[in-house]
Automatic annotation (TrEMBL):
The lineage of its organism: Bacteria, Bacillati, Actinomycetota, Actinomycetes, Micromonosporales. Coiled coil: none annotated. InterPro entries: Arc_rbn_hlx_hlx, Ribbon_hlx_hlx. Residues 49-62 have a biased composition (Pro residues). Residues 43-72 are annotated as: Disordered. This is Arc-like DNA binding domain-containing protein.
Length: 72
């Protein structure tokens, strides 16, 4: 799971109200709407974060090697 950063954000009441209405229209929480808007702004500015690299698959447990069936 990706670790999420906690952030204190102070907003003007009118800005908060506008974001809250937008969030309600999109069926999102205010927090999710702020993240959506930030990601959209990053994409527009050409500064999108790189997606996290998938973790390498874990090797099989020791002793679990199975003999391959013969093709007779």
């Amino acid at each position: 799971m990706v670790e999420r950063k906690k952030l204190l954000l102070r907003l003007d009441q009118q800005v908060y109200d506008a974001i809250a209405k937008w969030a309600a229209d999109d069926l999102r929480s205010v927090n999710a709407q702020i993240e959506y808007a930030l990601r959209m702004a990053l994409r527009t500015a050409g500064r999108s974060p790189k997606p996290p690299r998938p973790a390498d698959p874990a090797p099989p447990p020791r002793g679990s090697e199975q003999a391959e069936p013969d093709d007779d």
